[in-house]
Amino acid sequence: MRVAQRILVIGATGLLGEPVAYGLRDAEFIVRVVSRNISGARATFPEPFEVIEGDAAKRADVDNALTDCDAVHISIDHDQEDECITHVVEAAQSQGLKRITYVSGTTVCEENRWFPLVDRKLKSEQAILASGIDYTILCPGWFMEMLSRFVRHGPAIVFGKPSRRWHFVSIQDFARMVTESYRCPEAVNKRLYVHGPQALTVLEALRSYCRVLHPEIKRVLRVPYSLLRGIAWLSGNAELQSGVNMVSYLEQVGERSDATEANAILGAPEITLDEWLSIQKVPRE
Ligand SMILES: NC(=O)c1ccc[n+]([C@@H]2O[C@H](COP(=O)([O-])OP(=O)(O)OC[C@H]3O[C@@H](n4cnc5c(N)ncnc54)[C@H](OP(=O)(O)O)[C@@H]3O)[C@@H](O)[C@H]2O)c1
Q: In sequence order, which residues have a C-beta less than 8 Å from that of residue 247 and are 6 or more positions away?
């Protein structure tokens, strides 16, 4: 028997949330999305999606969004993510939700708590664990879809000197695993690492990306963190600043987790980078 009929997706307008919302809809769940930008969300999610305006930082909005839901999938990027998750957990408890799924990260562990995002995610995970509600926490690392962000301004640029290998995963595989976690009793109360089929450095992955999707780019430039931070500071580019901080953090700590349990329970991601690239080449209808 399915644990949920109506699932609220918080963060459905985001990179990871949108394919998850569509995957859940395709699996015949009733999917409600909540967004701070109602018109944008309505355009992305036509009927049968239910679309509600709301801010996860406001408890009343969360209560409203969760009304009549059985479960909530949380995939938000917010400076006070842990406070938002506390609101969601409290509202979920008071409304008797049966299930929470939450997107954490593959490097999230006590040892890496010095990095602010990890601290927020550990606090969020703690709130979910303490709620008494059945949960599945998914911990992905690098997504193939992030590669386009390194070729946005003409040349392809990698930050620093990437030498760590990461199991790049496609969002399609990730969305399938989230949907599967709602069908599969073994996924209950598990924290599962999500790793793609091959381990690559960011440089290797970006070279493949350029070879297939941007053959006009002949080489990938390696730019030191210090130079990128200087550019971000001088230009007031907060997105670049936070991107450099994230990439340098990931390179510092590396991928140490093991996806064996997730693969056994939810089915291993199968899409390789080459397969993913060949799908991106096919013109969209
Ligand atoms: N991207 C990656 O490579 C990656 C890897 C591992 C883990 N993760 C984790 O996955 C999660 C999602 O990442 P993403 O890349 O999909 O983020 P994203 O594209 O930046 O999307 C962020 C989403 O969060 C929602 N959001 C933010 N603040 C909100 C608030 N106060 N109330 C309601 N919704 C709010 C936004 O919705 P509206 O703007 O529509 O309100 C948006 O849909 C994050 O927790 C991230 O740490 C991401």
A: 159, 160, 162, 202, 225
